[in-house]
Write a sequence for this structure.
DNA sequence: TAATATTTTGCAACACTGTTGCGCTCTTAA
DNA sequence: TTAAGAGCGCAACAGTGTTGCAAAATATTA
């Protein structure tokens, strides 16, 4: 992935995110690991960084649909890069898989969150569907 | 619900939970509010109690399938009473609904978590499916 | 019943995650 | 070159969850 930085910058431009060095670094970390990461896991990839800087960077990414958030019940929010064509809408929602063994959280982008016929009076806005089990690597 | 305590004690006996006074109180609080509650919300129902006692009580309840846990992304785990016939297995999984407006978390027990055909190598153990939107009360 | 063992509770302290204020630094625009 | 704005690092803090330990309550045994 020699052109990773370049790719990242293209995305930044597309989503109107100013490409600072921290942002490029964090983008690269997220893209190199193709699984959802927690803030702490991202922090571990640096020798020395500030939680707060990462936190605010992730917020910028989130606000501009570069990443999506997953609540998998581990206590820490997970972050994963959006697809190129993602608009962070209902149609982009997909299932996430948390491995009970290794703790990895996989974006199953080929599995969209199924449509649910809600009871009268409930309006759908968003969904968080996490399946827990054993991943291929841990079988 | 005059026989609430009695009901609770029956459940305790059925699930082999010793019916201490704290447990009866916490059971009653959960049954009076028919929505999932956080530890903090339960704590608020008392004049003075110990987080840790509630925490450990909830753990006993969870270990004995009296309650189930919901991770709705609010930061705090939610707890809700199980149905009488619940065995905390795959068939008992249901969708939860978090209202963006009032913050209430509803157990939609009539909506089971749908079966998902996972990619090769992934094994299903558990699921957490939370839909976010506006509830009937807030429409 | 009295003594002993077990369980539960209250208190305190702590760990982890997320969040914000503030001033310095760096980038951008005039 | 200077001024304005945005981003960053540092520190402090809030919210949630968790544990050790001793006192209290309860169950068990003598
Ligand atoms: Mn994803
Ligand atoms: Mn429920
Ligand atoms: Zn795994
Ligand atoms: Zn509502």
């Amino acid at each position: 992935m020699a052109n990773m930085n370049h790719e990242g910058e293209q995305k930044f431009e597309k989503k109107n995110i100013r490409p600072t060095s921290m942002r490029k670094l964090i983008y690269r970390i997220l893209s190199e690991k193709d699984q959802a990461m927690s803030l702490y896991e991202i922090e571990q990839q640096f020798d020395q960084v500030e939680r707060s800087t990462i936190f605010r960077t992730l917020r910028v990414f989130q606000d501009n649909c570069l990443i999506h958030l997953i609540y998998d019940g581990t206590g820490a929010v997970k972050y994963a890069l959006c697809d190129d064509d993602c608009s962070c809408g209902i149609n982009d929602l997909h299932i996430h898989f948390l491995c009970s063994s290794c703790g990895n959280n996989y974006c199953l982008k080929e599995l969209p969150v199924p449509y649910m016929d809600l009871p009268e009076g409930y309006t759908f806005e968003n969904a968080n569907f996490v399946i827990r089990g054993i991943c291929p690597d841990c079988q």
